[in-house]
Write a structure and sequence with these properties.
CATH topology of the largest domain: Rossmann fold
Number of strands: 15
Radius of gyration: 23 Å
Structural class: alpha/beta
Strand order of the largest sheet: 10-11-9-12-8-13-14-15
Number of domains: 2
Strand content: 15-25%
Largest sheet: 8 strands, mixed
Oligomer: single chain
Distance between the termini: 46 Å
Low-confidence stretches: 131-150, 405-416
Amino acid sequence: MSEGEKIRVMIVDDIVDTRDQLEKLLFFEKDIEVVAKASNGREAIAFARQYRPQVILMDINMPDMDGIAATEAILTQDPGIQVIIMSVQGETDYIRRAMLAGAREFLIKPISADDLYRSIRHVARLAAMRPVVPVAGGAVAGAVGAAQPSADGQIFAVFSPKGGVGVSSIAANLAVAIRQQTNKKVALVDGNVIFGDLSVLLNLRADKTIIDVASRIENLDRDLLNDVMATHPTQVKVLLAPPDPQRGELVTADHIRAILEMLRQEYDYVVVDTPASFQDRSLAALDLAQRVITLMTLEMHCIRNVKLFLEVADLLGYPNDKVMLVLNKATNRTGIRAEEVEKHLQRKLALQIGDAPHEMTLAINQGTPIVMAKPNHQVAKDIMNLARELVVKTDKEAVAASSPKPKLFGQWLPRR
């Protein structure tokens, strides 16, 4: 968007009072303009063609045609429109349906003014940042999902769509393992700004946290980061989460994105402990990552959630090699075999990390990663193997991306 240009917004909701309330909330925002209001999905499709909004606030539950069907139809005729789904329901299935339809964000009613403004500006900025690539028929579309080749450091987001599978423990151990193997600069970010616990896992004092960076984001530079980040005995630099959820709420997706971009310039490897959510903070880390280490366990509800995430990842344009499936707490005592999971997901597991509940709990309680406390344990070796594979693969890709492309033989032939 050019400077001074307003974000064109359309509001779609079958309740008149809701439409009017949203319009009033946006009226005094100088960079946002409500260009149309629709009362149902069919009207929204027609108005989208007529008024060409950049962002649509779309209610999910409407008579005649609901927000999901309307979103699919609108994005078919204009893929560049950014849709924000609104719903009183916050269940995973609703979020999944919205993402499958092509929505970019999901807001739960009642919506605060700050969340509304932030989401509209966020999706508009995402649309403006998309590189233009040709598509069938000579049209153009924005390519999203794949991190762009860069000479900067590599970002690894450790993630699971279900909590309790060991994301924080693996992230902490992975960062230490990468540092031990490469002796390069490694940063670890507690992206779970609401309930982050890397300070406990690594026995670090949270004197300064990510909130100290977020509150001074306009002055973000290497000096600010170095002042705020804690130093682990392995020399891994750690950006810790706030000590309480209230302050964590002040950290936005834009903060996460700016911080990760700066860290990528300053560190060779950045490991992000990413919360189990499809909300904008998580997506900010997932979008920027070269690899999304997706942890899962051999439990049916976890497998189901991973399958849903893989569908969302496809919709977000993530290439298959960006999402790396890793089985954590691997055991043959659950009644489910890894081979059955691969067949169900139609994806191969990249690695398996063994199950050691006693040793992992002891390591957590002592604040010492298992790769340090018990380096000869099989789980520690599995994590070291994960670190090795990540480093080797991403380093090869970085070299390939930065290498000049060879000229074709025909380019050297004289014109006839």
